[in-house]
Design goal:
alpha/beta; Rossmann fold; 4-stranded parallel beta sheet; 10 helices; 4 strands
Amino acid sequence: AAVDLRGCGESSVDWPAWSRTAIAGDLIALIRHLGGPAVVVGHSVSGGAATIAAALEPSLVTAVVELAPFTRKQSVRLGDLRVKRFRRGMLRLLGAGAFGSLPLWRSYLDVAYPGVKPAHWGERLGLIESRLREPGRMKAMQAMGRSAPTDAGAQLGNVRCPVLVVMGTLDPDWADPHAEGSAVVAELPSGLGRLEMIEGAGHYPHDQFPDEVAALVL
């Protein structure tokens, strides 16, 4: 089952909270509704939400896959800004979040999808833009972007199921994607986490290289 996060896709925009803990509650409710348990695959923000769901309801979540996840407290070192890919991505992402700028978000996506673009890329961008022009959509994305991943990081040590972390080597959201993925794995209980890198992928490895990611997941 595929899930539209709060405020995204066809979901409504009038939610009282946008934290990973709130999203985890949505995931848990869906798993219960479908009769669970389930393997939960989360990307970016929802990677952190999947972590929380697994920690809170271990009987409902049998495994977690985190794709380019924001799952722990973030920090930027001065030296990180020397990495052009990271610098370009961060400026565009922060600008889109701060100003609700659709052009900056589109510019960020150009950096987040380095090299290989999914089929019908132009049509996809058009759909994304039309969605974000709907009332409340951009504000929902801004609110989600402002939510700190510290709640997810606090739950990493409470996870009891296997966790696969998948990072793209060219992800612009981190100066060193491998180091970020390794840090997530290190904060899990020993032996539960595994990191895999997708060469040439940006922040959306599952979209750029679906076959490679599917092979890792399955």
